[in-house]
Design a protein that fits this description.
- This protein has nine helices and ten strands.
- α6 packs antiparallel against α8.
- The protein starts with 11 loop residues before the first strand and ends in a 6-residue tail after the last helix.
Length: 304
C-alpha cells in the first residue's frame, strides 16, 4: 500500500480530432488551445495537408488535438491521401470537434452525419454575425442535422467562448500514461515544422492557382558557430512546384518574390532557433507530383 505521505498523480489523456471544411478555423483553434503555433494558417484552401498533433498538458490531463485537412473534393492522388488522413484521425479519437464557419451555409457530409463518436460543434466567427437572433436561427438549423454533444458559438479571432472547450473535453479523458512529453506542444519533427513555416509564407505571397501545387523539402540543416562564437543555423530548402510555367512565378522578376518569401520565413525561423539563420531557397519542378505516389511519399504527405 502507498504511504500516507506519498503524492499520487493521476494521469489522463484525451484525443480530439478537429474537423471541418477549409477555412473554418481548425488550425487557428488548435494553435490557440495549445498556446503555441503548431499548425500553419492561411486563407487558401487545403493549407493543412496531413494530421498535425497539437499537445497541451495541464493539471494531469494531456489534451491531444489532431488537426486534419479540410473537407474538399478529391481532385488528385494527394487529395485522396488528405481525405484518408481525416478518416484515420476520426477513427482513433475519443471525441470530435467539428468546426463550422457560421457565416456560411453549414452542410454535413454523410460520414459526419453517420459518425458514431460524440461530436462537439463549434460555430466559429460569431463576431461577424449581425444579431443574436441570427445566431439562434443557425443553432436551430444545425441541431436538426445530427445530434451534437454541445453546440458552442465561438470566435477564434477574439477568443469568445474558447474557455468552454477544455472542460467539455475533460469528460472524455481516460486514465493512462501520456503519449507525448508534457513540455512538447506538437509531435512534428523539426524539419517538418520548418518546411511548413516556409510553405505558409509561400501561401501568403503567391497567386491562388499556385499554392496547391507547391511542396517544401528541407535539404540541409546545420548548426554551427560564427567566428565570434555565436550560434548560427544554415538552412536550405527546395520549393517544389508541379508545372514548369509556375517556376518563374515563384521566383519572380530578378528573384524578387522568392527573396521576399525567404526574408519573411527567416524572421520566424530565427525566432524558433533564437539565433541567426542563413536560409537558402531554390525552386525545383516535379511535373504533376500530386498524382505521383512516389513523390507524395517522398514529400511526407502519404496518409499511411
Amino acid at each position: 500500500m502507498p504511504r500516507k505521505d506519498m503524492v499520487i498523480t493521476m494521469r489522463k489523456t484525451v484525443f480530439t480530432a478537429v474537423c471541418g471544411r477549409t477555412n473554418a478555423g481548425k488550425s487557428s483553434l488548435v494553435n490557440l488551445l495549445v498556446g503555441e503555433k503548431v499548425a500553419i494558417v492561411s486563407e487558401k484552401p487545403q493549407t493543412t495537408r496531413t494530421q498535425i498533433n497539437g499537445v497541451l498538458t495541464r493539471d494531469g490531463i494531456q489534451y491531444v488535438f489532431v488537426d486534419t485537412p479540410g473537407f474538399h473534393k478529391e481532385k488528385s492522388e494527394l487529395s485522396k491521401h488528405m481525405h484518408k488522413s481525416v478518416r484515420s484521425a476520426v477513427a482513433g479519437v475519443d471525441v470530435i470537434i467539428l468546426m463550422a464557419d457560421c457565416t456560411r451555409r453549414i452542410v454535413l457530409s454523410r460520414e459526419m452525419i453517420e459518425e458514431k463518436n460524440d461530436v462537439i460543434l463549434l460555430l466559429n466567427k460569431v463576431d461577424l454575425l449581425k444579431s443574436k437572433a441570427e445566431l439562434l436561427t443557425i443553432i436551430d438549423d444545425v441541431s436538426k442535422l445530427r445530434e451534437f454533444v454541445e453546440i458552442i458559438p465561438v470566435s477564434v479571432k477574439d477568443g469568445t467562448n474558447i474557455d468552454k472547450i477544455l472542460p467539455i473535453l475533460e469528460r472524455y479523458a481516460k486514465e493512462g500514461e501520456y503519449y507525448f512529453e508534457p513540455e512538447l506542444p506538437t509531435d512534428q519533427s523539426e524539419k517538418v515544422w520548418l518546411s511548413e513555416i516556409i510553405r505558409e509564407k509561400l501561401l501568403h505571397a503567391l497567386r491562388d492557382e499556385l499554392p496547391h501545387g507547391i511542396a517544401v523539402q528541407i535539404e540541409a540543416l546545420e548548426h554551427s558557430k560564427t567566428n565570434k562564437g555565436e550560434d548560427i543555423v544554415d538552412l536550405s530548402a527546395a520549393v517544389i512546384c508541379d508545372k514548369q510555367s509556375h517556376k518563374g512565378m515563384i521566383i519572380g522578376k530578378g528573384g524578387a518574390t522568392l527573396k521576399k518569401i525567404g526574408s519573411i520565413a527567416r524572421i520566424e525561423t530565427e525566432e524558433y532557433f533564437e539565433c541567426k539563420v542563413h536560409l537558402k531557397l531554390w525552386v525545383k519542378v516535379a511535373e504533376d507530383w500530386r498524382n505521383r505516389e512516389n513523390l507524395i511519399h517522398e514529400f511526407g504527405l502519404k496518409s499511411d
